[in-house]
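Complex record, two chains
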Amino acid sequence: MNTDVALILLQDGLVSGAVYVLLATALVLVFSVTRVVFVPQGDLVAFTALTLSAFEAGQPPGTVWILIVAAAIALALDVIEAVRLRDRLHATRSLLRFGLVPTVIVMAALFLVPKTAPLAWKMAVSAALIACLGPLIYRIVFQPLAAASPLVLLIAAVAAHLGLSSIGLHVFGAEGVRTEGFSGAPFALFGMIVTPQAVGVLASSVTVVTALYVFFRFSLRGRALLAAAHNRRGAEIVGISTVAAGRTVFLLTGIAAAISGLLIGPTTTLYYDSGFLLGLKGFVGAIVGGMAVYPLAAAGALLVGTVEAFASFWASAYRDVIVFLVIIPVLFWRSVSTVAPEDGLE
Amino acid sequence: MTALLRIERFSVRYGRLLAVNDVSLEAHAGEVTAVIGPNGAGKTSLVNAIMGLIPFEGSLAFPAWPAAARSIEARIRARISLVPETRDLFGPMSVLDNLRLGAFALRSEVGFDMASRLTGVFKLFPRLAERREQRADTLSGGERQMLALGRALMLRPSFLMLDEPSLGLAPLIVAEMFRIIQRLKNDGVSILLIEQNARAALRISDRAYVLENGAVHLAGGASEIAADPRIIDAYLGGSMTAADDGRQRLSGRR
């Protein structure tokens, strides 16, 4: 291998690493606020690419049907709860949140995205469809389990993943897709050939992660989400609803998944079930950060991307095996270098 | 006298355990109402249920704010605030963040001014102003209690429930804490004070309830309660051991 090849591999690695950074950040975020290891994150990524590809083919995407059914279930659950509590305000909010918003997005997807529409609009509608699924999944699967142990939440997350990927097969079919990305001619930078796609992916990932950082570091709402994670009782007595916190963080993770899907779609062929492996790579990054430390999680995700790029050059068939082997020394190092926090202190 | 809080035939259950048993109680505007009693008497369960954190049986009303009984959020909007026994601070966050989050529920109200609220709390607790950037979990016990109280005061509460504000604090800090409670009372805040430190609590209270094994054992004006021989015997005795003995005697008579 010469330097040129190494540089190209490094660039590839950083580009897929940048997407894993987004996934890892979203996983840490969801985990720290709700204690859920959000396994279906990857499914949402794959669904985004499949949705965009359906729009490119001029067909209504299967995501529309998933959204309609999920919104109907969530709306029913929420309205039943509101009626039981005899809370009119709650009922109105449910109708807006799980009725009106999904309806608007579904209508836009069905009638306002012709085949000739600009790519940016198709991307925006795809992202809206997927982002909207986040809070719906929270409402249906995780909100009823809010008080359960992390293990129960993990099992529910795995179940949600299995459910979503079989629904995915049903509505999207078994075909793989590759979507359009940032177009333009490659150019030279410091003697390295750089594609606009690579620059676009890196820039988008950095932008989203920075936006999340600013939101959680400086806005009162962001601080409130973290407060709900630090102390449930404390959050309740100052009026931070843990349910609202869960819903918001699932919306954020939906947005992150959608953007990841738009970024990774043009670089690799995605199938209805490709999400799991993608999610797992983000998860390896998140684990490097102990599911808690964002910079470490991001570094871990970049490491995963780089190792993957070099592994596919040397031993392409064993690519994923090599990537997941990397986690073993990392876990070993973490287990000897960190003190486990005490459990159950609430 | 207008009642701000009225509970009747109020009970809290944990499975088969009856923590609060058929309690009736009133707290009046402009007064400090003390609830005293030994460990495990059900005092904390009582305030947590009043705040809406745990389910209860019986009736609960805030006559001045009829809507407040509906949910915790509704209580907060009516400026009803709780400082829990466990403090429940946001440990990894700064003192400033903890205080700002105390006013989280009011952030979109017309005329809401975070800065003037912070100034008000810092005036009462200059110590918190010095430590505003420090993480809450690195504070001393006294400072934590000040922060917990400061966070509740960010709401500018009209009805404040304090659960064992003197618990685990050094005597000097306890005295300071009671001075601050007195000052809040003078400022017109109505207070429900849960305390084991009966002597100090009765001194600043107008009305008092003695809770034992989840039930009201005695109720009346604070000065009457303080003069009741059974209470002097059980709670206001000279030494800790005398108080403990008395407590056992009192429970034994039940």
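Note: Confidence is low (pLDDT under 50) at residues 342-346 of chain A.
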